[in-house]
Write a structure and sequence with these properties.
By secondary structure, this protein is α/β, with parallel strands linked by helices. It has helices spanning 6-18, 22-38, 42-69, 90-98, 100-104, 119-132, 142-154, 158-164, 183-196, 220-232, 244-256, 263-267, 271-290, 322-325; strands at residues 108-112, 137-141, 170-174, 201-206, 234-238, 308-310, 313-317, 326-330. It binds adenosine-5'-diphosphate and magnesium ion (MG). Residues 75, 79-81, 84-85, 113, 115-121, 205, 244-245 line the site of adenosine-5'-diphosphate.
Length: 334
């Protein structure tokens, strides 16, 4: 059995360091000893070494991308109870988690619903799955990001700050509706949304349906422009369920009292949820009333959610060109 010459071994160490192959540098000696012992052909040894370097690189990349994503810990699809949100299709969520179609096209995902319904959890879980699938993601509370962008604006560096966020294929803006109604704040948000339009994806969670966004953005024109851009290529989930926390507390109380959880405590929507339900039901009805598919046979597939009328907001989406064909009016809800 041939073994590596000590002179060659020293050269290999130096060369692998020079080539910046740290993982190969760590294992080549034991791998080559195994190859010598088992009589591997040279090609097999080289392939095993290269594979090891590549596997280590992707492990380090994943670690880096998970750290930069700043996802809340423990919120994964595995820990998400889909039965608690029967309005959401698990299959659709799993397809979104792969990312390819929508993230590649810079499409958006919007999660609406009352507090505690699992919007942030689902958003973080999707973010986690996308990072695992090789995408770069940033999870942030909308107010935090808005503050950072405001500072950048004051330093005349807003454009650069927004451009820097381009490295993230998906930006998760949690709790959009918590942004206060202030011209400076919301206009940076508007600029961010405009800059990413049709290029980079956004996932937005909000307690308020579109009709209430007039409270977030300072004027009607800006609200219309924001919603118009967001919904043009978007999937919208309406998570009209009772607070998961409240339900869990109720179940715990019933368990302590020796009773099995009732259907009532599992499923009854709270008042906020009921309000949401009503407003979205109205929206759906109105969508059905307004939408004449025969008149728009070649509607863009991304307009499958449109026209949507949610609370006081009405959007009509007809084929393809946003600027020509999407008409939005606020305050005309019926
Ligand atoms: P929201 O963002 O809609 O206000 P969260 O995502 O913060 O709600 O959910 C509140 C808490 O309940 C979190 O701890 C979350 O992990 C948990 N939770 C909510 N919905 C679910 C669910 N369907 N499965 C598992 N945990 C859930
Ligand atoms: Mg939340």
């Amino acid at each position: 059995m041939k073994t590596t010459d000590p002179g060659d071994a020293a050269r290999v160490e130096l060369l692998l360091a020079e080539l910046r192959l740290p993982a190969a540098k760590l294992v080549w000696a034991s791998l080559s000893a195994q190859a010598d012992k088992e009589g591997w052909p040279a090609g097999r040894f080289l392939a095993a070494l290269a594979e090891h370097e590549i596997a280590e690189r992707s492990r380090r990349r994943l670690e880096r991308h998970l750290a930069e994503a700043r996802l809340p810990p423990g919120k994964t699809l595995d820990t998400f109870d889909f039965e608690a949100v029967p309005v959401i299709s698990k299959a659709q969520v799993m397809a979104l988690a792969a990312g390819d179609a929508w993230v590649n096209n810079g499409a958006n995902l919007l999660l609406f619903g009352p507090p505690g319904g699992g919007k942030s959890h689902l958003a973080a879980a999707l973010g986690f799955a996308l990072v695992e699938n090789g995408w770069r993601v940033l999870f942030t509370r909308t107010t935090d990001l808005v503050q950072r962008l405001q500072i950048a604006r004051r330093e005349l560096a807003l454009e650069a700050a927004i451009a820097k966020l381009d490295k993230f294929h998906l930006l998760i803006l949690d709790d959009l509706a918590y942004v206060t109604k202030d011209q400076a704040e919301t206009s940076v948000l508007f600029e961010l949304i405009s800059a990413r339009y049709e290029r980079r994806s956004l996932l937005i969670t909000a307690n308020q349906p579109f009709g209430e966004w007039g409270k977030v953005f300072p004027d009607q024109a800006m609200t219309v422009a924001v919603v118009d851009r967001l919904v043009h290529h978007a999937t919208i989930f309406e998570m009209n369920v009772e607070s998961y926390r409240r339900r869990a507390a109720l179940n715990a109380r019933e368990a302590a009292a020796g009773r099995p959880p009732t259907r009532q405590s599992q499923r009854t929507p709270d008042r906020r949820a009921a309000t949401f339900k009503t407003s979205f039901a109205l929206a759906r009805q109105s969508r059905r009333d307004n939408y004449d598919s025969a008149a728009m046979p070649d509607s863009h597939p991304d307009c499958r959610w449109l026209p949507i009328q949610i609370a006081a907001l009405q959007i009509n989406c007809v084929p393809h060109s946003r600027s020509q064909s999407t008409k939005i009016s606020i305050g005309s809800g019926s």
